[in-house]
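Reopening this one. Same input as before:
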Amino acid sequence: MTSSRPQRRSWAEPWKVKVVEPLTMMSAQERQAALVRAGYNTFLLKSEEVYIDLLTDSGTSAMSDWQWAGMMMGDEAYAGSKNFYNLEAAVQKHYGYKHVVPTHQGRGAENILSQLCIKPGDSVPGNMYFTTTRLHQELAGGTFVDVVIPQAHDPNHEHPFKGNVDVDALEALIKRVGAKKVPYVCVGATVNMAGGQPVSMENMKAVRALTAKHGVRIFLDATRAVENAWFIKTRERGYADKSVADILKEFCSYSDGCTMSGKKDALVNIGGWLALNDRDLYEEASNLVVVYEGLHTYGGMAGRDMEAMARGIVESVQDDHVRARIGQVEYLGHKLQEWGVPIVKPIGGHAVYLDAKAFYPHLTQDQFPAQALAAYLYADSGVRSMERGIVSAGRDKATGKHHYPKLELVRLTVPRRVYTQAHMDVTAESVAAVWDQRQEARGLKMVYEPKYLRFFQARFEKE
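Same output, byte for byte:
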């Protein structure tokens, strides 16, 4: 007798729902009107106009009962809050850095690090740009240089660590401009703009060996380093039996510090930090944070937020949590792959990325195909996603012309501990419906463009 049982046992999230927030879906006519008011930019939609919000995982996670309990223990002293010391201890234990400067979020840390380390004329290598990171580097007088491996620019390549630094390209840059013109290497883990792709431990060790030879520092963008640790555990030889917590600490040990948006891995709605090992640099950062953020023991955060982040760090490195978090993203990605929808492969950590060039080969990049795809998806179902293509890439600071990235993507970003698999099913079915209607798609034209980080506030019209 043949069994009808599934060959693979199902898994469930390692938490249960305690509080719910009602959701409503507007009619198709109301969604279309909202799109027009927002200038076809999903960032300009009102939250109440959105049914399933996959715009970002930044500050959109659900906190645990333990974190909420910590919020009630906020020490709101202007100086020396006990919550800061709890946060400092959590970073030191799980990330391994010596010194911690709190900031209101990740870009506050990017600003301070850029101002401290970058001089006009410097070259700052990194494994693919990120929007705010590159802007802070440019405002400090530096020039970003992409040293990610070539496979990162190919959405169909199955390299398990597409976030890796091209060590040969990095060495060639150091030799060409001189080590004194390279203030540090910026390593993002995972690489957002490549599709949430991880960096291997082997690659991190190689980058550390090279930079040590030339006296160049490494600073991590550790925003999703916990997710990166999970991919090392599951994809890299020798790490299967190690915990995410141990892998994370080893990974960070090959760097000199990090910028961090606690709004992702650390499971909070606001907050971040700059972590450093060098005492002198820490003293400078502690002084500069007072100018831009707040005193060095609160850095723009309330005590209660620091406590929630300290506890979120502890929860974030638990294997069961990371397994379920990335498992939900994979669930959505595998469903789309089964239906033939073109996505970035392999599936990344925090999001599924739709390949807008493959959706709309009849549109040029100047017609903003990813921006159009995000708009069509919202119009179909009320699912909010975001563009990661030519609009996000911005303009060359010297020529003023568009950057034309090889990747033209739409990001379906899954908040942590927020949505169920049923929400993922609704999302996948909407994407499939838009895919089926792809030949009817029209491009957009940009009618308003702000000076910096245009993807947040640019406005568009249909062609």
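So the earlier flakiness isn't reproducible anymore. For the record, The radius of gyration is 22 Å.
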